[in-house]
Amino acid sequence: AQKVTQAQTEISVVEKEDVTLDCVYETRDTTYYLFWYKQPPSGELVFLIRRNSFDEQNEISGRYSWNFQKSTSSFNFTITASQVVDSAVYFCALSGGAGGTSYGKLTFGQGTILTVHP
Amino acid sequence: DGGITQSPKYLFRKEGQNVTLSCEQNLNHDAMYWYRQDPGQGLRLIYYSQIVNDFQKGDIAEGYSVSREKKESFPLTVTSAQKNPTAFYLCASSPREGRRTYEQYFGPGTRLTVT
Question: What is the Cα–Cα distance from B93 to A56, expressed in whole angstroms?
Answer without folding.
Answer: 26
